[in-house]
Write a structure and sequence with these properties.
By secondary structure, the protein is α/β, with parallel strands linked by helices. Helix content is 30%, strand content 15%. The protein contains 19 helices and 17 strands. Strand 16 and strand 17 form a beta hairpin. Helix 9 runs parallel beside helix 12.
Length: 552
């Protein structure tokens, strides 16, 4: 290629790394995910920077750890002025568009303080996580006594109403609900997960967003980056026909859990095992209904991905478009006695990451896997470099994956980091910790995984070489203190990183050295001979006039 590619950055919400046929799932066939994997590289050790939607996404979009950007939980605003993927790409001459979900909450107070109107271009980008918006719909239009969970307007609900679906919230009444004896069978209730959603399949969320994507690509002029962000297979776990009946209890893998995990568990882990979603997923009857629906949602995602790939092929754009498939986090689905995400077992914190680079430099790696330790923040660096710009590593904390895609073996990290702030969860109250102490950190070196919990708790430690299922917490005993100390050393090194010097690059610093002296700031000298005479020339020479004896 002689020009930077367009970038199709597709994110699926709550998609587990191992629920793809190219990743070895025993029953779920995903030929279109596999198709991209055959065209590019599948990274087998990709970890997100937080196992919760909003915090993880803000790390993807900024290329920075959650401790750096500060948006550590859903609904925590990304502060005004945080540099985002869109900022980096526009500097490289590439537009950056959103199609779907961000989970971004605007820093309204910061915008008001600076006088930024959300109607202005810069204000709109600040409010939309740095993207220009083709269509944004965060896709959780739950409604209760205090109103809607998501704020603003739902383009998807408006679409459903235009198609004749009745009511003020057809997202809840049709797209995410079935029918039982003439009554709404809400997808919020696990008992209804085996029912077909009461909607025409082509009108459901995933096809709708695919339609939006195809409409965007049909009119787009490059170079562009399009962040296509699907809400599924995130709950509510309900899917339209025919996907609701493609899988059954016989396709549900055995739960990956063991009694030893509940034997003297870490206090934080114990609290999460006792929460509402965990106790639900500990029941086989729940798993037998929910997991087939989850698989159906993924199968629908795969079919819709096929529509996008076919369009790129037929339009001749496949050779000009980088394709990235990933997720913001996984889903426990009952593994480790847990549901949802939140903690740091691989089911939660490890994600699929598949990258197709059309550049001929990537030909040698097509159809391969890469076991390097990869972080979600690496995509911001990858896209910036693919757009033809040097990565501003004083801002972006990730590393470009292009060398791996091009068959090189670059100097690389020794560990990955993930963080989780659970201050807004019931588990904080159950544990009796403060908001500041309701924080967890994971450091994983490819074999040993350490979890540190603030608040005076002991750590957790797993050896994924001898215990790939992560059943045995080695920190319960005293035999692995050397490994605990070593990993704490990595965590300390990471904690001391220089993450806040975002306004001056190393190049800037090099250019600043000596500038003040050349501009006449010359303190701490005895007679001026300490520096080059050129620097003191303005301070030498005959005096123009003496005022010492002037009494006027």
């Amino acid at each position: 290629m002689t020009k930077p590619p367009n970038i199709l950055f597709i994110m699926y919400d709550q998609l587990r790394f191992d629920y793809l046929s190219c990743a070895g799932h025993p029953h779920l066939q995903t030929p279109n995910f596999d198709r991209v994997a055959a065209m590019g590289v599948r990274f087998t050790n990709a970890y997100v920077q937080s196992p919760i939607c909003g915090a993880s996404r803000m790390s993807f979009y900024t290329g920075r750890y959650t401790a750096s950007h500060g948006a550590q939980w859903n609904g925590f605003p990304l502060r005004v002025g945080e540099v985002t993927l869109g900022d980096h790409l526009r500097k490289a001459g590439m537009d950056c568009w959103l199609i779907g979900k961000t989970h971004m909450r605007v820093d309204a107070e910061g915008m008001a303080r600076l006088g930024l109107s959300p109607d202005s271009i810069i204000g709109a980008r600040q409010a939309e996580c740095g993207f220009d918006v083709w269509v944004r719909d965060d896709g959780l239009w739950g409604e209760g006594p205090d109103g809607f969970y998501d704020r603003g307007r739902s383009p998807y609900n408006a679409y459903l109403q235009s198609q004749g679906y009745p009511g003020s919230n057809p997202w809840a009444d049709h797209a995410n609900a079935g029918i039982d004896d003439g009554q709404i069978a809400s997808g919020w209730f696990f008992d209804n997960a085996d029912k077909p959603a009461n909607i025409r399949e082509e009108d459901s969320e995933t096809p709708w967003l695919t339609d939006q994507t195809l409409a965007f690509m049909d009119q787009a002029k490059g170079p562009w980056c399009a962040h296509v962000s699907y809400i599924k297979p995130h709950w509510p776990y309900i899917v339209p026909a025919p996907y609701h009946a493609m899988y059954g209890p016989e396709h549900v893998p055995p739960a990956c859990r063991a009694d030893v995990e509940r034997d003297d568990p870490h206090a934080v882990y114990d609290a999460f095992m006792k929460n509402k979603v965990a106790t639900a997923f500990q029941q086989d009857k729940v798993r037998d209904k929910v997991i087939p629906a989850y698989m159906g949602l993924i199968k629908q995602c795969d079919d819709q991905l096929g529509r996008i790939l076919d369009y790129l092929d037929s339009s001749g754009q496949i050779g000009d478009t980088m394709i990235v498939l990933t997720s913001d986090h996984g889903d426990y689905l009952g593994d480790h006695w847990l549901g949802e995400k939140d903690l740091f077992h691989d089911q939660s914190v490890k994600v699929p990451m598949i990258i197709y680079d059309p550049n001929t430099a990537a030909d040698a790696t097509r159809g391969t896997t890469c076991d390097a330790l990869v972080e979600g923040i690496d995509l911001a660096a990858t896209f910036t470099e693919a757009a033809g710009k040097d990565v501003p590593d004083h801002i972006i904390e990730g590393c470009s994956l292009l060398p791996w895609l091009h068959g090189q073996t670059p100097p690389w990290r020794d560990y990955v980091i993930s963080e989780y702030n659970y201050c807004l969860t019931p588990m904080r109250a159950a544990l009796g910790v403060s908001n500041d102490d309701a924080r967890l950190f994971m450091v994983f070196d490819g074999r040993y995984k350490l979890i540190h919990a603030e608040g005076g708790f002991r750590p957790m430690l797993f050896d994924l070489q001898s215990d790939p299922e992560e059943f045995n917490d080695l920190a319960k005993g005293n035999d692995h203190q050397a490994e605990i100390d070593r990993l704490y050393g990595h965590l300390a090194t990471w904690g001391r990183r220089n993450s806040q010097r975002v306004t001056r690059s190393d190049e800037d610093l090099d250019g600043m050295r000596g500038v003040s002296a050349r501009r006449g700031i010359l303190p701490f000298m005895t007679d001026g001979s300490e520096v080059d005479p050129e620097l003191t020339i303005k301070y030498r020479g005959p005096a123009t006039k003496s005022y010492l004896d002037d009494t006027d």
